[in-house]
């Protein structure tokens, strides 16, 4: 089996060239003498795909032979972005491909731009899944990702007259060269119907007769590791009509209806829910959750049974990671399969379930947690509702023995919430069954223990862990910032930091070195140039490269306070306008860049986008201000836009009201790219401060424990004058649309839940400190180098190693080859 250790395919540039031409001719079906950029991209992608497939096969066969414990990462969202550059870099053959292409008259970078994003997720949680897949592959863990193959990814944001409009993202339109459809890997997934108790030889059995069956088909997406031959798989499920179920309908003669019903099956995986806030109790969403969970569990059990007969060994071979509550029906599904189909008996099944699940929470507030109406669950998944009731009954009985008849506490901890609509608390279910529960930063994990899940922490302190988030330096430095990557390797004298990111601390000793600073500034300049070109192409605004590029890009949310940023920009504009002309040469010029999508139903967030455009319109057309201040909104922010924006940023803003951002991962990407942070002490920022020191970034605002008191005090009396003044400008119609913006102003001047008023002065001070630092290029550059040097802790490699060792109990399983 290992005779051809490094595979059939050769990677020298001549072989790659032939390979690309072969794909032009036979896969893309164009003449090898005449093809355009897109066709060249397709052929190139197929050539890379061949290499990925070979490595996946090798990896899977090797895992099968070694039979290690595997970890299965269950997530309803993965924001993978583009795959081409990332793949060839991880395969270690980017330069060879670039050579091959240039001989054919094409440029690698240009072809890479042809690829669309795979945007099967909303924001932080979804991009985190993608970063973690990269780390699991690179660190050689025997891991699988499981998710849904949405036909429509996150909506495309189109701005018309400054307003957000949503357009469907039919991303599979031109085919997807990275995936492989596995026509033989399909499972029936059941819905609706009835459960009947049967007596079989004196034993009670629950028989679920479904009302609908949909087939789940696997689509495999290879995830190559860097510096290893290991290539793991992200398996995404798509809905297909099930023949098994249709037979009856055809037999009854209702042919037309039967065909129409078949079509409905595909709806399950058709569209990603675009809200990253809360649960709305929609049936289709619940169907999506169960569909992907059921197919994944069937797949995992099939793999286990291929080689094992005794379920006692299951926990030694399987770890299941729940990415938030979205996949937590997996718990009820595992119980159903073990009890109803494998006949293990409840206690044994429960014992197994409790050993395999672990659970990551990404939410901060109780309102963000999923609660499924019992009526909905009972109609869609009648057997699962029974199982959840049984789990809860046993849990509450046990709890009574441990804590006595404290009914308040019992009802808080119960999986079932009584009330006008009875619901299932998915987080409680996940905590009860998981052996470990973790938050995504230190402060968030503490908050889980002291507030959100205090009762559970007191019952099971040993379950609670912290896994501070991280991002992959392969995507966020090597792929997106090749010039910085080369510079770092040059000064460290090695590329080893790409796998061993702690080595970045080696840059610290050169932070004051004039030569490094010079080269560092050059790299930033080049990246700013790329970004400036993009801005001009998107918005027509010309920006000065000497200005500070100040960026806030993330989903639009009230708690992330893009409004604070915009009010600060209005204040800056107002100051410049009121300044003596002779004083204006002291102003540090700024290009303020804001980008992000608002959930389609989130009215206030949409108004913030409109306000940004209205203010930009005014400022950018004011010749009196010129290059001293520009404001641009970057439309349709996604992974590939982030790859362009982040390397070009001088300053980035992370303004969440303290206590509201569980972690925040954008900040880590900016940090790696030598961008200085202006931030509140929230989520992972607290840990970033520990790594790089408080004097290496610009902190402001109320701290987490000050927030409740400030809220109690109310806002009116502490509204600073400058803030009142900018709000007045908005109210007076300085930027037009005064009626439309009224409700935004009311929120700040009303109860000001997100504390814009009370943080405003401190925010302006931090901004002034940033201006001052930027005016001293040496100092700024040194801080920039120290930011990158201190970013190693925020690599997803660290996070994943921690999960593997402390949560999953899995070990690396590396295919024996040179890479
Ligand atoms: C739930 C139900 C129905 C439809 C959508 C959802 C839903 C989807 C995504 C709810 C929340 C979702 O994401 C939340 C999220 O992205 N949380 C962020 O997770 C990051 C990674 O841990 C953290 O860094 C951020 O602080 C946190 O806000």
TrEMBL record:
Q: Does the keyword Transferase apply?
A: yes
Q: Which GO terms describe its cellular component?
A: cytoplasm
GO BP annotations, alphabetical order: glycogen catabolic process
Catalyses: [(1->4)-alpha-D-glucosyl](n) + phosphate = [(1->4)-alpha-D-glucosyl](n-1) + alpha-D-glucose 1-phosphate
Task: Tell me which UniProt keywords the record has, alphabetically.
Answer: Allosteric enzyme, Carbohydrate metabolism, Glycosyltransferase, Pyridoxal phosphate, Transferase
Keyword flag Transferase: yes
Which GO MF terms does the UniProt record name? Answer: glycogen phosphorylase activity; pyridoxal phosphate binding
EC number from the UniProt entry: 2.4.1.1
In terms of superkingdom, the source organism counts as Eukaryota
Q: Name the coenzymes or cofactors required.
A: pyridoxal 5'-phosphate
What is the role of this chain? Allosteric enzyme that catalyzes the rate-limiting step in glycogen catabolism, the phosphorolytic cleavage of glycogen to produce glucose-1-phosphate, and plays a central role in maintaining cellular and organismal glucose homeostasis.
Which family does the record claim for this protein? Belongs to the glycogen phosphorylase family.
Q: What name does this protein carry?
A: Alpha-1,4 glucan phosphorylase
Section of the entire sequence shown: 258 to 1076 of 1076
């Amino acid at each position: 089996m290992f005779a051809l250790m490094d595979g059939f395919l050769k990677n020298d540039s001549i072989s790659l060239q032939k390979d690309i031409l072969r794909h032009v001719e036979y896969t893309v079906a164009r003449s090898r003498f005449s093809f355009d950029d897109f066709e060249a991209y397709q052929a190139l992608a197929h050539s890379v795909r061949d290499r990925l497939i070979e490595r996946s096969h090798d990896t899977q066969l090797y895992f099968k032979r070694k039979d290690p414990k595997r970890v299965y990462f269950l997530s309803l969202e993965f924001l993978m972005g583009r795959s081409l550059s990332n793949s060839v870099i991880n395969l270690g053959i980017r330069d060879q491909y670039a050579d091959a292409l240039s001989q054919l008259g094409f440029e690698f970078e240009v072809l890479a731009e042809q690829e669309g994003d795979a945007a099967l997720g909303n924001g932080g949680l979804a991009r985190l899944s993608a970063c973690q897949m990269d780390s699991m592959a690179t660190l050689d863990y025997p891991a699988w990702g499981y998710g849904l193959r949405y036909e429509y990814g996150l909506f495309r944001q189109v701005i018309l007259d400054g307003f957000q409009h949503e357009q469907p993202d039919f991303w599979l339109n031109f085919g997807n060269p990275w995936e492989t459809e596995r026509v033989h890997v399909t499972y029936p997934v059941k819905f609706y119907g009835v459960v009947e108790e049967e007596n079989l030889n004196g034993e009670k059995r629950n028989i679920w007769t479904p009302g609908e069956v949909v087939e789940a088909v696997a689509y495999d997406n290879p995830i190559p590791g860097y510096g290893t031959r290991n290539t793991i798989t992200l398996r995404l499920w798509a809905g297909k009509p099930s023949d098994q179920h249709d037979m009856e309908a055809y037999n009854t003669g209702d042919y037309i209806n039967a065909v129409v019903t078949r079509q409905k099956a595909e709806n399950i995986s058709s569209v990603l829910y675009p809200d990253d806030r809360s649960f709305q109790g929609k049936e289709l969403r619940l169907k999506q959750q169960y569909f992907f969970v059921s197919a994944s569990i069937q797949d995992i059990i099939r793999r286990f049974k291929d080689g094992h007969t005794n379920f006692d060994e299951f926990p030694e071979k399987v770890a299941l990671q729940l990415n938030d509550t979205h996949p937590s029906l997996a718990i009820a599904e595992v119980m159903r399969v073990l009890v109803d189909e494998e006949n293990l008996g409840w206690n044994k099944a429960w014992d197994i379930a409790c050993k395999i699940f672990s659970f990551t929470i990404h939410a901060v507030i109780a309102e963000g947690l999923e609660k499924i109406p019992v009526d909905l669950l009972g109609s869609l998944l009648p057997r699962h509702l029974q199982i959840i009731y049984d789990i809860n009954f046993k849990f509450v009985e046990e709890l009574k023995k441990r804590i006595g008849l404290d009914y308040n506490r019992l009802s808080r901890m119960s999986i079932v919430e009584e009330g006008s609509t009875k619901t299932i608390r998915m987080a409680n279910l996940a905590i009860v069954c998981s052996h470990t529960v973790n938050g995504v930063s230190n402060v968030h994990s503490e908050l889980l223990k002291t507030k959100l899940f205090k009762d559970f922490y007191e019952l099971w302190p040993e379950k609670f862990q912290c896994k501070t988030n991280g991002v992959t330096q392969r995507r966020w430095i090597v792929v997106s910032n090749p010039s910085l990557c080369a510079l770092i390797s040059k000064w460290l004298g090695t590329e080893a930091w790409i796998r061993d990111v702690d080595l970045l601390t080696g840059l610290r000793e050169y932070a004051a070195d004039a030569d490094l600073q010079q080269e560092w500034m050059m790299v930033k300049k080049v990246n700013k140039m790329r970004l400036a070109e993009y801005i001009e192409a998107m918005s027509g605004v010309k920006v000065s490269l000497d200005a500070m590029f100040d960026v806030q890009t993330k989903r639009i949310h009230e708690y992330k306070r893009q409004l604070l940023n915009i009010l600060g920009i209005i204040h800056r504009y107002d100051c410049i306008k009121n300044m003596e002309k002779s004083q204006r040469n002291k102003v540090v010029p700024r290009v303020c860049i804001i980008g992000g999508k608002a959930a389609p139903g989130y009215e206030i967030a949409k108004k913030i986008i409109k306000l940004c455009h209205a203010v930009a319109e005014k400022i950018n057309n004011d010749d009196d201000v010129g290059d001293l201040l520009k404001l641009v909104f970057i439309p349709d922010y996604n992974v590939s836009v982030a790859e362009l924006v982040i390397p070009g940023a001088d300053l980035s803003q992370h303004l969440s009201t303290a206590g509201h951002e569980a972690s925040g991962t954008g900040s880590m990407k900016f940090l790696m790219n030598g961008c200085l942070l202006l931030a509140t002490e929230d989520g992972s920022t607290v840990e970033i401060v520990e790594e790089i020191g408080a004097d290496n970034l610009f902190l402001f605002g109320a701290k987490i424990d000050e927030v409740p008191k400030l809220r109690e005090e109310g806002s009116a009396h502490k509204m600073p004058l400058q803030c009142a003044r900018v709000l007045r400008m908005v109210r007076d119609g300085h930027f037009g649309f005064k009626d439309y913006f009224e409700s935004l102003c009311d929120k700040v001047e009303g109860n000001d839940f997100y504390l814009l008023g009370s943080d405003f002065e401190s925010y302006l001070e931090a901004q002034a400190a940033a201006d001052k630092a930027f005016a001293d290029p040496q100092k700024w550059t040194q801080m920039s180098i120290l930011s990158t040097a201190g970013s190693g802790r925020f690599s997803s490699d660290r996070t994943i190693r921690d999960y593997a060792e402390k949560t999953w109990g899995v070990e690396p399983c590396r295919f024996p080859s040179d890479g």
